[in-house]
Specification:
By secondary structure, this protein is mainly alpha-helical. It has a single domain, classed as MetI-like fold (Orthogonal Bundle). It has ten helices and no strands.
Length: 279
């Protein structure tokens, strides 16, 4: 692809995703203030462009005087960790299940497809309630819920790809040559679905972040004293009438991150699809 790969790159969405990644990796070194430090004298301080605000707390402060910018930056770490592990495990499980179902067909395909249909019939929030009751609410509970929710999405798409690939001549030649099924999977099928997996993972980043924020908002996800964008929304909702910035700023962070991941995923899909790349 060469230099043409980067032609028309959505630099603004890419910069937003890079900033989220840097904030998550930088940790306390990049934070203006301790995100959990209380300063009741600064409670409900507005953003710098409103009367009473200043650049010490550029996005304002919440009901306990905690710096909103610092908390948004700290909350990005939870979003990145959840997105990374949830996509890694759901993509891995879904890819393996989809490859097995699509390649072998028959009763194996029927069994796995029935499992996928059963899983997709269970509402994600209901699943979260069950797991929250059985497990301790927290980061890993969120990851487990997301993995159990999204693996079937990967499996369905990858199954369709494998069903189209397994009838290609090079797969038939490999079978005739006595190549084992694991080798066919690794050397012939996986490289051909890798681009699809990358695009699916990129598009899922925004969904995972939004899902984590929803669970934390409902009290089923991240718990105090950890910080997440959804938990910030939950804490600030009762003050929306007199301190709108406390709930608006983390909401904007969620919106921009999800929008950036969707735009970048769409661009990546177009660049990795040979048919679209020729247009």
């Amino acid at each position: 692809m060469g230099a043409s790969m980067w032609r028309g790159v959505p630099w603004i969405p890419l910069a937003i995703l890079a900033a989220v990644g840097i904030f998550a990796a930088g940790g306390e070194w990049l934070l203006p203030f301790d995100p959990n430090e209380l300063d009741l004298g600064s409670a409900f301080k507005p953003p710098f462009w409103l009367e009473g605000g200043d650049f010490a707390n550029p996005l304002g402060a919440d009901n306990l005087g905690r710096d909103i910018l610092s908390r948004i930056m700290a909350g990005s770490r939870v979003s990145v960790i959840v997105a990374f592990y949830a996509i890694l495990f759901s993509g891995g499980i879904g890819a393996i299940a989809g490859m097995i179902a699509g390649y072998f067909g028959g009763w194996v395909d029927t069994l796995l497809m029935r499992l996928i249909e059963i899983q997709q019939s269970v509402p994600a929030i209901a699943l979260a309630l069950i797991l929250a009751a059985a497990l301790e609410p927290g980061l890993w509970t969120v990851v487990v819920v997301i993995v159990l929710t999204y693996w079937a999405w990967y499996a369905r798409i990858i199954r369709g790809e494998i069903m189209a690939l397994k009838n290609r001549d090079y797969i038939a030649f490999a079978r005739v040559a006595g190549v084992g099924t694991p080798t066919i999977f690794v050397r012939h099928l996986l490289p051909n679905i890798f681009n699809t997996l990358v695009v699916l993972a990129t598009l899922q980043v925004g969904q995972v972040i939004l899902f984590e924020a929803s669970l934390s908002f409902l009290g089923l996800g991240i718990q105090q004293p950890d910080i997440s964008w959804g938990l910030m929304l939950s804490d600030a909702r009762q003050y929306i009438t007199n301190a709108w910035w406390a709930i608006t700023m983390p909401g904007i962070a969620i919106m921009l991150t999800c929008l950036a991941s969707n735009i970048f995923g769409d661009w990546l899909r177009d660049r990795l699809d040979p048919q679209l790349r020729q247009l």
